[in-house]
Queue: 4 jobs
Job 1
Amino acid sequence: MVQQLNEPTSPSTPGKLKPDKSHHIHHRFRIHSSHSRLTLFSSLFLAFILLLFFLTFTPPPPPTTAPRRVLGDSWGGSQWERLVSKSARRSSASGHTVLVTGAAGFVGTHVSLALKRRGDGVLGLDNFNRYYDPNLKRARQKLLERAGVFVVDGDINDAALLKKLFDVVPFTHVMHLAAQAGVRYAMQNPGSYVHSNVAGFVNLLEACKSANPQPAIVWASSSSVYGLNSKVPFSEKDRTDQPASLYAATKKAGEEIAHSYNHIYGLSITALRFFTVYGPWGRPDMAYFFFTKDILKGKTITVFESPDGGTVSRDFTYIDDIVKGCLGALDTAKKSTGSGGKKKGSAQFRVFNLGNTSPVPVSDLVAILERLLKVTAKKKVLPMPRNGDVKFTHANISLAHKDLGYRPTIDLETGLRKFVKWYLEFYSSGSNYKKVAW
Ligand SMILES: NC(=O)c1ccc[n+]([C@@H]2O[C@H](COP(=O)([O-])OP(=O)(O)OC[C@H]3O[C@@H](n4cnc5c(N)ncnc54)[C@H](O)[C@@H]3O)[C@@H](O)[C@H]2O)c1
């Protein structure tokens, strides 16, 4: 290498060398050897420095956990952990410490506020997906922030995030409301139902089963699991094996999955079958919401009747009644019996209907809205398409009444009045009008 570097750049042609060149060569060799010595010393010196470096340099320890992080997430760091802990700190000695999934959703916002108000520690989790206007979810998040509830921006499928949350906070309860809701959207995006309602739920149960202590879980199933049943009112004992939509099928799957986790790991699990929940801060994809919007805009609304010409009716349940049912379920939930993924004994497993137990035809819903909005709706009546909707829902709520003290008190007209008041205020206030898509 050294020699190569010192070789003449122009090739020496044999026979053209003069005799006196030997002196020259000799001289060159002298220069060469002094260069070589110098290079040798520098190499030795460099090797010595490198040796010193390797002897004294200790590589940083590998991270204790190598979390799998979902692309684009924004969690982690000491500041973030402080927010998480602060939000989950309870202000009442007897309060729970609750992780609310789907906290920026309609029901999640109301439940989180009610829990915080009475002194429970509440941490929210929501992925703010675009199923409906995310600005409405962000507006709910602001409301929660003002009440001291921090909503982590993340997905229930993110195992590393869930593990981190359970490492930072010893949750006593999980109120699981995150889901892909809505029956019709399943025909457009079936994968989103599997992602959130099946895979996401399993991921959450995995985190709960491994947590120490294991939390008690209360989660939202749906009246849709009664599917095509014709016996009314729907009772928890009725069959739930003929779903009319993929949404219903994923909720039914959730109930079965929950049972297996209860059985194997001793997780205390309560499923609440909600019946058409409505109210302020509601969901824009639900009929009472988009009817209000369209009636105010003078747009024609489509009212479905059942294929045999009969009315389509729903057991509309006001949000405050649902919140009371959720709190009742959390307060009566027994502790999970396992720890660190191992079952220590059988655990509580419950299913409750949370409805209003007085179904109202959708045509009556429209008539109430017309009165409240003081506008006559332009209506088109069509037979109900086969898109996942069922003809009627009607809850038997005697079990929830007996075990949770559940007693709905708000009739549809009273509840819709509150909704319309919120709607007009929210969408007419300048900032929201601009931000939230109509
Ligand atoms: N509102 C009703 O009438 C009704 C009826 C029956 C059952 N339910 C169930 O009640 C629960 C709450 O419903 P809602 O009306 O408040 O719906 P919502 O859509 O307003 O709330 C659900 C929230 O979960 C979030 N979310 C969805 N997938 C997620 C994921 N993978 N990770 C994290 N967050 C995710 C959404 O962003 C949303 O904010 C849902 O489980 C729903 O299926 C609601």
Job 2
Amino acid sequence: MPKPKYHILVCKNTRPPGHPKGSCGERGAMGVLNQFNFGVMERNLIGQVIVTPTDCLGPCQMGPTVVVYPGHRARADAFGNLHVAVPR
Ligand code: FES
């Protein structure tokens, strides 16, 4: 298998409702994960981009959280509060 150009980690961790830390799962992480997977397939980027569901990445209150390797200047970029856009 060739080395992928990008690796996208999507936190899908879910905590019980009302948990003080919150979680990406209760904020729509599975929809974000599905959109990344669909986008990779739609753009024929299989093998170049890998999308991996993960457990907690840390900034739970900003979820859904996504980390992309490599990001800007070869470091990882982290994104939070992502939502699935629904076309009108
Ligand atoms: S639950 Fe997603 S970053 Fe912690």
Job 3
Amino acid sequence: MEEVERLLVVDDEGPILHALQRTFEAAGYQVTACADPAEALERLREKPFQVLSADYMMPGMTGAEFLAQAKALQPETIRILLTAAHDFSAAVDAVNNGEIFRILAKPWNRVELLGTVRQAFDTYALRERNRQLTAIVQSQNAELAALNKGLEALVEERTTNLLDGMVAVLDYRDTETQWHSQRVSRFTKRLAQQLGINDEHILRTIEMGALLHDIGKIGVRDAVLLKPGPLDTDEWVEMREHPRLGWALLQRIEFLRDASVIVLQHQERFDGKGYPAALKGEQIVLGARLFAVADTYDAITSDRPYRKAQAHDAAVTEMRRVAGTQLDPQGVAAFCALPESEWQAIRQDVEKISLLEQEWGWTPPKRVFEQIHEVAGFSRSPKPAFTERARSPKPAFTARAGTTLSNTLSQARRSVKGGRGPRPVARAAAEGASLPAPPRRRLRRRARV
Ligand SMILES: [Fe+2]
């Protein structure tokens, strides 16, 4: 539908006002004529006009004042000033303050007047179209930005899930404790929080750096990584490359660049006797120093093929002994400031993931695990001490009242958008069928690196 072209004409001299009105109406415009500038401002408050033509010399208000007020009321309106030749220098104010499209001299040339008004309407239409297109572009940019953000989050989540799987495989291959990296990651994050860090990005960086600390071992040969006896000199050189290999791997993943520094420095020692760069004290990033504390605690309190797990107190004694040499004293103090129950709760939280893995036959992504944790509130009964879990019979899930494991698994399956749900083995578990025994792990005894 073609829009009506509305023109507001203001001139205090009646014959001139009528002459202008007749001229413009004859050209097809819808004209509103006002002899009083105050009345013209009222009309501007009532409805929009594309073009405004005003006299310069008017009673009660100069053309400059009128056009400035008109601009404030309708900034998009195209403004034309009609002025006698001797008013020209005074009209400069109107141009500067009212942003005039054209100045026309009285008496006017009809062709020039109508041509100028036509140009004014065309200019208004072009600007209006430009405003509409700009609004569309801005809206589409906002949609695109939201879409990109969603895609980035999706890439981050899927990359994290992939890395989670790689870390689980590495842990399983290397340390016989598949959940070592998950525990250490959570321990390290908790230590950072204890030191007052609450920035989400920093905490996420520390958590991911600790989780991926040994990802570089993917590049260490089995003959070295899995060697049952002590490593020779060349083998140590290869093994000690794993922080750099992990760092190099993570350089390719933008959202993990910050975390890659923790991976690079995770084998450094507070006293400068670590590797690969023999960094000392605060030359080592805080995340890597806290990781070392968490890693030491987990190593002492976890079962190994060649020794049993030790108690929390024994770990604390050992960590205090090496504070200032192997470990950052600040990190050890932060650890000791929290009660044993806090650390056990984190350990048990990770155990719940391992239980789900046994039930499902695959490891739930963190997001799904958290949802299940919230929905089902499952627990083990009776709850064995965490150091005894490997020898305990496989526990059963206990759901909250009104929530069955089957429901929970169904919810989880639905929540894995575009991915696969629990495998048939998990459904069988949900229906009470017996599950195949998990694969047995080979026992090995070798140096910890
Ligand atoms: Fe390592």
Job 4
Amino acid sequence: MAGAFGFKGSCQKIRGPEIRNLLEAKEFFLFDCDGVIWHGENAITGAPKVVNSLIRHGKNVFFVTNNCTRPRENYVSKFYRLGFTDVMQEQIFSSSYCSALYLRDVAKVQGKVFVIGCEGVRKELREAGVPFLEEDDPPDATIYNCALSPDVKAVLVGHDDKLTFLKLAKASCYLRDPECLFLATDNDPWHPLRDGRILPGSGCLTAALEVASGRKATVIGKPSRFMFECISSQFRGVDPAQCLMVGDRLETDVLFGSNCGLDTMLTLTGVSQIEEAEEYRDSEHSPNQSLVPDYVVDTIADFLPAFEDQD
Ligand SMILES: [Mg+2]
């Protein structure tokens, strides 16, 4: 549809009637969360109204997040707490949930999963019925004397704020077996915190293991297509041409949209700036074109006027 408006890959700032036309033309809206609809525990001004209005106007809204730290049921309460009162659990696709689906339905892993990750990952594996190894090393255990389970058939890496050298070492040992799957919830390098601080993301843990094992992880989260496949397998009639992917990070959200054949929109309330998008657009290196959004808005609150005379 963007082609019809002449905006495909143009990184075009849109407003007013152009936004209204786009919202009317699309049936499926995929939103990244952090930097798009909220910053941590604060909703972006106007975002709850935008999301609730889209849902009330019969649009299909999904959330695709690489944040694997909380299970989907915790997301539902967060959505509600921040004012997104119309969001249901079925609309939320997190990298931990999709990793569990991948292990169960695609890899059909026979045996246990060794997890580097936090409770969000474990909870989703438990919900999906994917067996994983519970950590039970004594405090003085080292890689020289710890137990290694012969049942481990997959290593799953995600954000882990309790990462230890022993966990890394054990995962590296399991990955010596070429039959052992190597999966990462996502490959995000870092996440912004307040005051210019950052939080290292899952990507840096995956990188450590890739170096130690000499192998490449299969990445489940954006920009990989798998989350979109999860959505289309659970909801009928999800046509890429009818979808808009809205995100704040070119290298994950916009690339994900491009990889899945969706129109893409960058919102400037998060990580990426319009100058970076324009640099990709003007670059001679053709793979960079997949990182160029079709549309740019300052904030998704720019959608609000489109609903005003309809509500
Ligand atoms: Mg984001």
